[in-house]
Amino acid sequence: MQRSAATLAERNYFRGHAVRMSSVSQTFMKLFRGSSGPETIPAQGSQKFTRRSSGLGELTRIWESAEGLCVLDLGSTSPTNIRHFTEHGHRIYSEDLLTASTDPELLIKDEHGIAALDSRKFLADNLVYPAAHFDVVLCWNLPDYLDESLVKPVVGRLWSVLKPGGMLLAFFHTRDAGPDSPCYRFHIVGPDTLEMQRIVLRREPPRGPAGAARTAGSDGFQLQRVFNNRHIETLFRDFASIKFFLARDNIREVLVVR
Amino acid sequence: MSTPASGLAQIGKSVFIKGELSGSEDLYLDGQVEGSITLKGNSLTVGPNGQVKASVEAKGVVVQGKLEGNVQASDRVELRKSAVVTGDITTQRISIEEGAYLKGKVDIHRTDTK
Questions:
Q1: Does the residue B2 lie in any domain?
Q2: What is the pLDDT of residues B78-113, one digit of tens each?
Q3: What was the ipTM of the complex prediction?
Q4: Which among A156, A161, A163, A157 is positioned nearest to A66, based on CA atoms?
Q5: Is A25 a domain residue?
């Protein structure tokens, strides 16, 4: 697990593509992750707190003024969110992609013999929806915690299942957040207010023939990388527009429009 | 965790059924079922050991175990904290306990009662 975390930090997310992560970022990530792997943080599963979200505020104006929207929530199953959208007369789809990415059957070795996740199998089992199906996708902090091999394919699939003009909300950590930033689930408790609840895994991460699930430790999901603004723009380059909201808690909120 | 009420039709955890399951009384299911379950006007409870791979049509559905398939409930659906549900849910009312897992759509069909 420690080795794979360090390997992840050193691997280039944009491998094989024109845009490559700068050496400065790579050096930073080595320092950021360290050579000894993540430290254990005591589980605090019931810990919750709220934060204001400008991105959510913008989306709220949409779902309060429209009817019958189709919303995809990619975080952990949230009864609060399901209630929120169904009470507004919208249809909500819930799909916990981070948990799905820990399926040991996804583990393969790439052409260099490095453990990776099979993105084709992942997309065959997950995010299987008709094209242009959703008005809103709530990505939350998924890109920061999802395995590197899945991020770009997942964003590509999200582009295809969003309607033209549809919106996607995602959160990205800044460098100041630190490598051990816990992974949260997000509950919508107000027009621009989110309740954050730390995700604590209930059981040991599943293991496959190539090793343990790479993004999950015993204390929860681990931050995989930090995107800078240019990386985020590149990640969503197929989308029509992108808007950044800088928050005080070392989080950049990103609202993209297909 | 709720236990089946006495007098309730039950399918125990050692029972495996493949095919169409239908009835006109409430059912507590703690075994395995593959196919379809139709209990129009009655309720289905999938117990903690229950593993269902079936489309479900009932008045009410309570899930404590695993359910894979679409659920159509004319009244309500309850997902308890141990529930693992993969499939679309269509119902009038839904309650989901903290910890339940759902992969699928929730569609609330409201009927106006005046």
A1: no
A2: 999 999 999 999 999 999 998 899 999 999 887 654
A3: 0.82
A4: A163
A5: no
Whether residues B96 and A91 touch (CB distance < 8 A) is answered with no
Q: Inform me whether the C-beta atom of residue A195 falls under 8 Å from chain B C-beta atoms.
A: no
Tens digits of per-residue pLDDT, B32-62? 999 999 998 999 999 999 999 999 999 999 9
Quote the number of domains for chain A: 1
Is residue A5 assigned to a domain? Answer: no
Residue in B94, B103, B108 nearest the CB of A95:
B103
Q: Do B94 and A91 touch (CB under 8 A)?
A: no
* For residues A7-25, average pLDDT: 39
Domain assignment of residue B102, yes or no:
yes
Is there a domain that residue B80 lies in? yes
In chain B, the number of structural domains is 1
Q: Which CATH number covers residue A93?
A: 3.40.50.150
Q: Do B104 and A93 touch (CB under 8 A)?
A: yes
Among candidates B95, B100, B102, B48, which has minimal Cα distance to B75? B95
Do B100 and A77 make contact, defined as CB atoms within 8 angstroms? yes
Alpha carbon distances (Å) from A159 to A17, A67, A129: 18, 22, 12
CA distance A77 to A80: 9
pTM of the model: 0.80
> Which value, in Å, is the radius of gyration of the alpha carbons in chain A?
18
